[in-house]
Each structure stands twice: as C-alpha cells, then as structure tokens.
Design a protein that fits this description.
heterodimer; A: 221 residues; alpha/beta; Glutaconate Coenzyme A-transferase; eight-stranded mixed beta sheet; three-stranded antiparallel beta sheet; globular; B: 216 residues; ten-stranded mixed beta sheet; three-stranded mixed beta sheet; 25% strand
Chain lengths: 221, 216
C-alpha cells in the first residue's frame, strides 16, 4: 500500500464542481495552504466549505472566496481580523452561511466519521441556533439533536506522514484535522515531511485508514 | 437630578480583580478579548492551568519576538508557548473537556447579561454583520462556573446589565458572576446581588447605569 502522490495538483484532481470540502485549521494554524492553492488553480467551483473559520486577508479559504468558488460556508467563526473576503461575499449575498457552535461542529464531523446518526448536546439549547431542531429533556436538562456532517473531501495539514497515510501533528495545528480525516469520503493530507520509514505506531494520531492520499509540502507561509 | 461621579476601573485593574477569584489548582478557559489578560494577574503561588479550545491545555506566556512557533496559537490567534505539563489534542477532545464539565471556570466577554443569568455574547441584531459563535455556547453549556468580564455600559451609555437580554442568547441562566469596571455582582435566584463596588463609586450611581435592579 502506498498513499503518497507526487504533487499537490494530483492530490486535488478528483475534486469536482459542487463538492463539499472540509478544510482543517483554526486561525492561522493547521491550514493546508498548499492544497488550497492547488484547488484554486484546479478550478472547481460551487463548493461547500466546512471549516472553523472563513479565511483572513488573502490567504487560505479567503483565496477561494475571493475567486468566487464557494457557494456555502459551514463554520463556527466566520469573522476574524481581516476576513474581508468572507464579509464581502456575505454582504453581497453571494455565499450562504451556516453557523454551528464550535464543539457541535467538531462532534457532527466526528459522528459522521464514527458512523453515528447524530447526538444530543446541551450546547445551544433554547437559542437561535437550535430553532427548528428536535429537542429532548434528559434528567431535567434540555438537549438538542444534531445530525452528522459528512463531506466528499477533506484537505488536511499534518506534520509527518508515512506511505500508509498515518499522520502525526505539531502543536495546535492538530485542531480539526483528525476528525475531518474520519468524516470525508476522500481525505488528502499535505505534510511538512514525508517519512521514508514507518511512523512509530505509538505516535500516530490519525491512523492511515482515514486518509486516502498524502503529499509532501514543506512550506508554510 | 443626581450628579454622577463614576470611577471606572482600568482594563488592567479589572483583569486583576477577576484574577483574585481564580483558585489554585483550577483549569480555566479565558475567552477572547479582555479575559485573555486575566492570567497575567493571578497571584504568585497559585498554579492555574489554562485551556484554549484550539487544542492546548497548559497555555504558557507569549514567546519573545523572533521565537514564535506559527503553529502554536491560542483561541485569540495570538502566538503562545506550552507551559510545563501542557498537552495538545484534537478538537472533539477539546470540546469534551468543555462540554463534559472538566474545565472549572470560564471567563467570557458579553454584549448583555440579564438578571436571570442569560448571556448574549455572539450575535447582535445587525443583519449585515455575520454572526460568529465560536466555542461560547459549548463553554456555557458545560463549564460549571461562568464569570463574565465587561464594561458596565455600552460606549453610548446604554446598559448591558438588563432585566432581559434583547440580543440572541448564548445560553439560558448560565452566568454566575459579573465583573464590570464599576462593580462585582452575583447572579442569584432573586437577581443581581452586589458583591462589591469598584473603589470610589456609590451604589445609587451604579444602579443608575443598570437596567436591572441591584440587590444588596
């Protein structure tokens, strides 16, 4: 088994117009900058992007928004200092927004990867974000039913990989990357370093079964 | 008409006041904005472990210029360091710590707090302004002690401590204590109860800046 691909271009080649794409990262850490650039060059449009943030300035997801490739954003925190492209597209009504509490976003993604039909969470009970959703009282406390969140693709950033697709991460760059690997039908990981030898099984964070392809991209802007 | 003579605390004094109430040995989540400054004022000798929802327990001080690790940030997106004993983890584990009741205290900013403990800190009524919730709803759903830290009134002088919130809620009946630049107030079953006034302020003046009644 060898999940290594030669370059970023081949890694994003299967992504078609209208695809749902999970993109790892939180703030400026753990973002697959190389894969996002490759997706921009590849040209797929009408995308649903699932990520914690909606990009800042002219980097990452903001590039896809600027180029008009994003039809919908599902995220917890679209506003960041300098998130000008999201704000422009949102104000003009050119991008649909679904705001999801951050822990609910992570857990919906995890539920999809774990084969669950959803879960009950106290988060958001009684608020605008629970409107129209099923609720249930458990031991006197209100819970909201949240559905699993699947995606066609996941674009991830990891520190190291081996040819089996095992991944390990660096510092807070881990964030959403492991759950997104699990929840997508096709997960692509960009890694700082491709190991020629197997990663130590004790240090593998995302087992290769969740990853379809890995590509080395050492740079991070 | 009464002549107002208000003496608001500076941001630094407010952060120092909140820090006094963070006990030794606690796991604490500091929200973005003003709450991030609280850690600098926790008295010597107390060990407090800071959680940041992007996947670190044991947030250390900001690194000196030139020594930043671009992949090591906190929830405010500032460069940080890992304190001795720190751990990294992925997002669903991070929110299990919050929702699962493992974090002891969260300090959050707010647009509005109501006398029944309702909190509004994620969305205004401005439709052009995209709402952004982040981890606030998860924190208030799972952390047993919620401290709010904010200015007592808005820039235009309108009250933020209300009978009922007018902005969309983050959580219902979740706030335990409010620290403002004019007073510290506990949320009780009867409403806001005064803990203390900031030095140099009179209750009648602070009450005049508060829509809800302040019990003493």
């Amino acid at each position: 088994m060898d999940k290594r691909v030669a370059d970023l271009e081949s890694a994003v080649a299967p992504i078609r117009d209208g695809a749902s794409v999970m993109i790892g990262g939180f703030g400026s850490s753990g973002i697959p900058f190389g894969l996002i650039d490759a997706l921009l060059a590849q040209g797929a449009t009408g995308l649903t992007v699932i990520s914690n943030n909606a990009g800042a300035e002219e980097t990452g997801i903001a590039k896809l928004l600027k180029a008009g490739r994003v039809a919908k954003v599902i995220c917890s925190y679209p506003r960041s200092p300098g998130s000008i492209w999201f704000e422009k597209r949102y104000e003009a009504g050119e991008v649909e927004l679904e705001v999801v509490p951050q822990g609910t976003l992570a857990e919906r993604i995890r539920a999809a990867g774990a084969g669950l039909g959803g879960f009950l969470t106290p988060t958001g009970y009684g608020t605008l974000l629970a409107e129209g959703k099923e609720t249930r009282m458990i031991d006197g406390r209100g819970y909201v039913f949240e559905a699993p969140l699947h995606a066609d693709f996941a674009l991830l950033r990891a520190d190291r990989a081996d040819k089996w697709g095992n991944l390990c991460f660096h510092a807070t760059a881990r964030n959403f990357n492991p759950v997104m690997a699990m929840a997508s039908r096709h997960a692509v990981a960009e890694v700082r370093h491709m190991s020629d030898t197997p990663l130590d099984p004790e240090n593998v964070v995302t087992p290769g079964i969740f990853v379809q392809s890995v590509v080395e991209y050492g740079v991070r802007p | 008409m009464t002549v107002m003579n208000l003496n608001p605390l500076t941001d630094a004094s407010l952060a120092a006041r909140v820090a006094q109430d963070i006990p030794d040995g606690s796991y604490v989540n500091l929200g973005i904005g003003k709450p991030t400054h609280v850690s600098a004022y926790v008295p010597e000798g107390r060990e407090v472990i800071y959680h940041s929802e992007n996947g670190i327990l044991g947030v250390g001080p900001n690194p000196p210029a030139g020594h930043e690790d671009f992949e090591l940030i906190d929830a405010s997106k500032r460069y940080v360091t890992a304190a001795p004993g720190a751990a990294y983890f992925e997002h669903s584990d991070s929110f299990a710590m919050m929702r699962g009741g493992h974090i002891n205290i969260a300090v959050l900013g707010a647009y509005q707090v109501a006398e029944n403990g309702d909190l509004a800190n994620w969305a205004t009524l401005d439709e052009k302004f995209p709402p952004a919730v982040g981890g606030a709803m998860d924190l208030v759903a799972g952390v047993p002690l919620i401290f709010v830290m904010m200015r007592h009134v808005n820039r235009d002088g309108t009250p933020k401590l209300l009978k009922r919130c007018t902005y969309p809620l983050t959580g219902l009946g979740v706030v335990n204590r409010v620290y403002t630049d004019l007073a510290v107030l506990d949320v009780t079953p009867d409403g806001f109860r005064l803990v203390e006034l900031a030095p140099g302020n009179r209750l009648e003046d602070v009450q005049a800046m508060t829509e809800a009644r302040i019990l003493t």
